[in-house]
Amino acid sequence: MLPEIDEGAPRELDLREVSRAALFVALGLAFPAAFHAVRLGHVLLPMYLPVLTAAFLLRPSWAAAVGAATPLVSALATGMPPMFPPIAMWMAVELALMALALSVLSRRTHLPRAALLAGVLVAGRILYAGLVYATGLWLALPARVLGLAALLSAWPGMLLAVAVVPPVAAALAMREARAAPRVADSTGAPPA
Hints:
This protein has helices at 15-37, 41-44, 48-57, 60-78, 87-108, 113-138, 143-152, 155-179. The longest helix is centred in the middle third of the chain and has 26 residues, at 113-138. α5 runs antiparallel to α6 (113-138). The protein is mainly α. The two termini are 28 Å apart.
């Protein structure tokens, strides 16, 4: 059982939510492979698309888990993003915090999904640039250049995410809402 940020008491482990989280992690591994095959992976941030979509559909703790796990599992399975330089670690921190923030904000505010996502993406990219900058200082590398490059190189991917994630998340949420009445409750009884 995972404690929830937006709900007072812990809830039982929801196997549908676990399954969805696993699916989004798997998509987070598949999308980069496809994008990198056509040499667009580093510019269009393909791993971010399923993670940010998950943030609109999963509870905050699961959204954060998807964000943290996806780059780490990908690094272990495919070698990308690399562990050194610690890009996988930077991405795990950035994606976990972005997914957590987006999941919480989408439940607590009535702002449009695209506006929430744009704000979270900008904040996440600033965080990522700060992590790159700090690591650059620690390793005696040109920290300002690395931080600025990290900040500026992601804009095409951020624009893609703002264009694609909100409608996909809305369509998946609508599909889930339509399917919800057909799902039996936790006792196994069919819906009334």
